[in-house]
Amino acid sequence: MWFWVFMLVNNLIVPIVMIVFGRVFCKHPPGQINSVYGFRTKMSRLNQQTWEFAHQYFGHLWLRAGCGLLPVAVLGMLCVYGKSETVVGIGGAIVLTVQMVVMMLPVAQTERELRRRFTETGRPALRSGK
Asked: What tens digit of pLDDT does each residue of 7-50 get?
């Protein structure tokens, strides 16, 4: 039972961190471009406009993904409740692996959106017909 609780708590950490940082990036993103804290990629650090857009976009994605992963973590662990420690460990590892994949997807999506909306020099891209 204690191992199941331990695994549940561990599997709740990822979605909670995603929700907290997603909200922070949406509401109170790092003000200045820096190399310590924030969504730090080559494209996001081109200028202040790309920096702010990246945090807003990434924050929303992480917030939504974190909210979606919370029930996945709970339901995934409920499926192995009362089972052996081996089954609980494997179930918890599967849930955590899914969470790690989902956690990284917004990085690629944000980079794609940055490249769509901004040029390589960080200027807003001109889109014809829109």
From this structure: 999 999 999 999 999 999 999 999 999 989 999 999 999 999 99
Query: Residue 118 — φ and ψ, nearest 5°?
Result: -130, 150
- φ/ψ region of 124 (left if φ > 0, alpha if ψ in -120 to 50, else beta) reads beta
Q: What angle do CA 32, 36, 37 make, to 5 degrees?
A: 65
In total, the chain counts a number of residues equal to 130
Q: What is the 3-state secondary structure (H, E, C) of 84-104?
A: CHHHHHHHHHHHHHHHHHHHH
How many degrees, rounded to 5, is the angle at CA 19 between CA 15 and CA 23?
165
Q: Is the separation of the CB atoms in 32 and 47 below 8 Å?
A: no
* CA torsion through residues 87, 89, 90, 91, sign: positive
- Which pair of structure tokens corresponds to residue 80? 């192995």
Tokens of 103: 């956690």
